């Protein structure tokens, strides 16, 4: 485990944290050679998978859904001609 002094930790904190997160490398910050804190990456929980089709049978989409009110919508975009 790497030990860095306080000054190095202040100047390179972003790089040290990125290394800890991406490579799982924890490190110790020391002051005057005396270990003060240990920095370890937090374990991330896996994101839940998308549930495709979970509403199947609960909602009904009309067959003419895509063609509804197209004239009205075009008028809103194009304005009255």
Provide a quick synopsis of the model.
By secondary structure, this protein is an alpha+beta fold. It has helices at 6-11, 13-23, 70-78; strands at 2-5, 27-31, 34-39.
Can you put this structure into words, describing what you see?
There is one protein chain. This protein has a 3-stranded mixed beta sheet with strand order 1-2-3. The N and C termini lie far apart (73 Å). The protein has helices spanning 6-11, 13-23, 70-78, and strands spanning 2-5, 27-31, 34-39. A hairpin with a 2-residue loop joins strand 2 (27-31) and strand 3 (34-39). It has 3 helices and 3 strands. The protein has a domain at 2-39: YefM-like fold. It is an alpha+beta fold and 81 residues long.
Q: What are the main properties of this structure?
A:
81 residues, alpha+beta, YefM-like fold, three-stranded mixed β-sheet, 3 helices, 3 strands
Task: Summarize the helices and strands and which ones pair or pack.
Elements: E1 2-5, H1 6-11, H2 13-23, E2 27-31, E3 34-39, H3 70-78
Parallel strand pairs: 1-2
Antiparallel strand pairs: 2-3
């Amino acid at each position: 485990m790497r030990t860095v002094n306080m000054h190095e930790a202040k100047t390179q904190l972003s790089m040290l944290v990125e290394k800890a997160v991406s490579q799982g490398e924890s490190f110790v910050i020391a002051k005057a050679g005396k270990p003060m804190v240990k920095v370890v990456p937090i374990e991330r929980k896996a994101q839940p998978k998308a549930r495709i089709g979970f509403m199947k049978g609960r909602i009904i989409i009309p067959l003419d859904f895509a063609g509804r009110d197209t004239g009205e919508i075009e008028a809103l975009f194009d304005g009255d001609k």
